[in-house]
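TASK: fixed-backbone design
INPUT:
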């Protein structure tokens, strides 16, 4: 289950935001300070953090990188009206996922809800990156094996053909040898092609999540 931490000194504001996710399959925790939720962030039971309230720019600039060190895939959403463009650019470079203004109506709450759901999708996609990278390595090893086998075939066939022409008047043995080598190459290509298909499918799914994140940010 996805875990969401809502940190805001304003109890009414954080309770109102928690109500937005009442019907969703999300474990929501509320606190007046994100420090109280560090254990969940470290244990990765919390994947998205929503920071709201009044911020000291110096503290925010230092705090965001610290949270990312606890979990590099953590998605952080900042809700604030009073924040300088310089600070916003800085924390975005540090990896903040989204910045939203304080909700003034239902549309504002819906914007934050969409941002949170998109953040969970992005988090899941980031978590799957090591598995995709490992699959790519396996695929490349298979390709190297196939190319090596093919090179051996290309080197062996001329020598074998030259030898057999001295002994046999027929090229049947040469054809059988080439056919057998081709069969070996095909047998190695089948799992490689299957792996490529799975990688393409995972990449398409990841691209879909990224597009969703961009769409939310544009809104």
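OUTPUT:
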């Amino acid at each position: 289950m996805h875990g969401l931490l809502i940190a805001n000194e304003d109890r009414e504001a954080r309770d109102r935001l928690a109500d937005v996710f009442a019907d969703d399959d999300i474990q929501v925790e509320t606190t007046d300070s994100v420090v109280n939720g560090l254990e969940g962030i470290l244990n990765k039971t919390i994947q998205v953090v929503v920071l709201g309230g009044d911020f000291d720019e110096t503290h925010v600039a230092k705090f965001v990188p610290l949270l990312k060190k606890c979990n590099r895939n953590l998605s952080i959403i900042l809700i604030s009206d009073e924040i300088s463009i310089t600070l916003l650019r800085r924390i975005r470079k540090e990896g903040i996922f989204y910045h939203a203004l304080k909700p003034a109506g239902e549309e504002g709450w819906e914007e934050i809800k969409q941002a949170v759901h998109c953040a969970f999708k992005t988090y899941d996609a980031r978590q799957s990156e090591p598995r995709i990278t490992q699959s790519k390595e396996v695929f490349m090893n298979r390709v190297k094996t196939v190319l090596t086998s093919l090179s051996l075939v290309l080197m062996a066939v001329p020598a074998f053909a030259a030898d057999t022409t001295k002994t046999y008047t027929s090229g049947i043995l040469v054809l059988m040898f080439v056919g057998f080598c081709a069969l070996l190459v095909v047998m190695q290509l089948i799992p490689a092609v299957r792996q490529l298909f799975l990688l393409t499918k995972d990449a398409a799914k990841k691209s879909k999540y990224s597009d969703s994140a961009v769409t939310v940010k544009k809104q």
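COMMENT: The first strand starts at residue 2 and ends at 7.
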